[in-house]
From TrEMBL:
It comes from the Bacteria. This is Transferase hexapeptide (Six repeat-containing protein). SUPFAM superfamilies: Trimeric LpxA-like enzymes. InterPro entries: Hexapep, Trans_hexapeptide_repeat, Trimer_LpxA-like_sf. PANTHER family: ACETYLTRANSFERASE.
Length: 135
């Protein structure tokens, strides 16, 4: 039986230990909290301090940086980058290759399309078709 963790050296030369999530085999850093019912696919990285709620799905190639919050039933598509301290509200869907900036907030139930960028600190809310609502 293979080991259930991997050590990776960061930019500062420090070694971070990631465990493989039981539900999808994505890499979860020590200090992150991922609900057992959430799916984190292989090839996804979840950094320390992240919280991922029940029913969330983080696809392959996604990177969720430190202290981000992913709400219940959120769908994070492949190759998405969620910046540090960002918050994604319950039931939101984030499209492929989208970048969510540091400390940005995506409202509950929002639909963010593919290849979009949400700026640092920006607050975004959309209707069910993905059209942005006025703040």
């Amino acid at each position: 039986m293979g080991k259930n963790y991997i050590d990776i050296e960061d930019d500062r030369g420090e070694t971070l230990r990631y465990r493989k999530h039981a539900n999808g085999r994505g890499l979860i850093a020590h200090g992150a909290k991922v609900h057992p019912s959430a799916i984190v696919e292989a090839g996804a990285y979840v950094e320390p301090g992240v919280q991922i709620a029940a029913g969330a799905h983080v696809a392959r190639g996604a990177w969720v940086e430190t202290d981000a919050f992913i709400g219940p039933d959120v769908e994070i598509s492949a190759h998405v980058h969620v910046g540090p301290g960002a918050k994604i509200g319950a039931g939101a869907k984030i499209g492929v290759r989208t970048i969510v900036g540091a400390h940005a907030q995506v409202a509950m139930g929002s639909l963010i399309g593919d290849d979009e960028s949400i700026d640092e600190g920006e607050r975004v809310a959309t209707d069910r078709r993905g059209l942005r609502l006025a703040a």
